[in-house]
Amino acid sequence: MATEAYDELERRPPETRERELLRALPGLLAHARAHAPYYGQMLADIAVDEIVDRAALARLPVTRKSELHELHRRSPPFGGLLAVPAGQLARIFISPGPTYDPEGRARDYWRSARALFAAGFRAGDIVQNCFSYHLTPAGSMFETGLAELGCAVIPAGTGQTEIQVTTMAALRVTGYVGTPSFLKLILDKATELGADLGALRVALVSAEPFLAPARELLQARRIDAYEVYGTADLGLVAYQTSARAGLVVDEGVIVELVRPGTGEPVADGDVGELVVTSFSREYPLIRFATGDLSRVVPGPSPCGRTNMRIAGWMGRADQVTKVRGQFVHPHHVAEVLRRVPAVRQARVVVENQDGADRMRVLCVLADVPGSDELRGEIERAIRDVTRLRGEVEFVDPGALPGDGKVIVDERSIG
Questions:
Q1: Helix/strand/coil for 269
Q2: In this structure, how many other beta carbons lie within 10 angstroms of the beta carbon of residue 69?
Q3: What is d(CA 115, CA 249) in angstroms, rounded to the nearest whole number?
Q4: Is residue 64 part of a domain?
Q5: What long-range pairs does 66-70 form, CB within 8 A, spacing at least 24?
Q6: Residue 402: which domain range?
Q7: d(Cα 404, Cα 330) in Å, to the nearest integer?
Q8: Main-chain dihedrals φ then ψ at residue 104, nearest 5 degrees
Q9: N or C: less crowded end of the chain, CB within 10 Å?
């Protein structure tokens, strides 16, 4: 299954892509260190010209999306991450917190045109953009990509379903971008009003799971719908193609999958947290931990694109839970592993027995025998890190699946 490519980058040999991205990495790091105060501190003692492969990249610290609010509070307004004067930006958006999301002046700054093209949007399409235009970047994120393709855009935003329907019918709209749930509301309202939306042929959806019932509804309406994964910080990260076999990673980012709570890459095929390095000159994000889980889809895409594929959104990496009044985070598990190198993998299982919380810690050992002495060492590390007692259980290699979960809360609620 081969499809038309947006440009020659999509069909590069994988080794060529890897070489060219990693060749550009030291320059990105040097730029960020020189112009963004946050990275000036983080990278101060790092020889950035030696970061030329993934192993070296994996040794750099991660910056977590969950930390942005605190960074912005300590160093307003952009947390020291902005690498140009704010007056050089095209737009500035606001996310809850607040945190501020910059948009540079480059054409298709968010890199959404590639995903839109893969979904079937073409010059001459009339597209109803139903992502929000108020404060948040989603509306602009896709409008700039649609403009790059030569589409006419209706900046519809969200709400006012009846007006959405009458506009779509009157202008014979051919494309939709927005959430899948809002598209369903529009289609339901069109049925209620007896409006003809037969010109609508293609949709790109994001910002919420694209579940089977929604996909089947759109298929029944002969609307070819695709999903995309991105964030307000990074822009486009990965997109669906006609192969419908995972999401192809964008050409302008480096994606890693790491064990939640750490910056350590997971084994091939395991679920891990998406960590992304973007090459934005205005807002360079280096090893940016999104908090979202996914895994690599092996092999080349049947559509002919050669970049890495991910399985899409598979849940959240921030598996925080509260045990006996104390929060337990994935980074606590990572710290226990750092303190006790004999433990290769661990998982916290929280249960409630007879009204009392119980925390079991399942440990896979790194080619050493289990012993009472080692068990005591691990239990002390757990207590020091979490201020909680954990019951250590040694388990066989392979007993803990590579599903990205380091904390499992099995307490029933309600």
A1: coil
A2: 15
A3: 10
A4: no
A5: 66/291, 66/318, 68/97, 68/99, 68/233, 69/97, 69/98, 69/99
A6: 321-409
A7: 10
A8: -80, 180
A9: C
How far, in Å, CA of 83 to CA of 322, rounded? 38
The verdict on residue 125 lying in a domain is: no
Count how many domains the chain has.
1
List, in sequence order, every residue forming a beta bridge with 100; answer none if it has no partner: 94
**Closest alpha carbon to 7 in 250, 290, 318:** 250
Give the tens place of pLDDT for each residue, 190-246: 999 999 999 999 999 998 888 888 889 999 999 999 999 999 999 999 999 999 999
Domain holding 351: CATH number?
3.30.300.30
Residue 179, CB half-sphere, CA atoms under 13 Å: how many?
A: 12
278 torsion bin: left (phi>0), alpha (psi -120 to 50), beta (else): beta
| Rounded average pLDDT over 97-103 | 90
Mean pLDDT of the chain: 93
Q: What pLDDT sits at residue 1?
A: 47
Here the tokens at position 323 are: 């045990």
Phi, psi angle pair for 301, to nearest 5°: -75, 140
What are the E-state strand segments in 68-137?
91-95, 99-103, 126-129
- pLDDT of 97 strictly over 80: no
Q: Establish if 396 belongs to a structural domain.
A: yes
Residue 393 lies in a domain: yes
Q: Environment class of residue 117 by beta-carbon count within 10 Å: exposed (0-12), middle (13-18) or buried (19+)?
A: buried
Sheet strand arrangement including 175-178? 152-155, 126-129, 175-178, 202-205, 224-231, 235-240, 247-249, 309-310, 296-297
| Geometric angle at alpha carbon 157, from 151 and 161, rounded to 5° | 110
The DSSP bridge partners found for residue 277 are 254
Q: Which band of pLDDT confidence, cut at 50, 70 and 90, is reported for residue 17?
A: very high
**pLDDT above 50 for 46:** yes
Helix (H, G, I), strand (E, B) or coil at 383: helix
Under 8 Å between Cβ of 100 and 72: yes
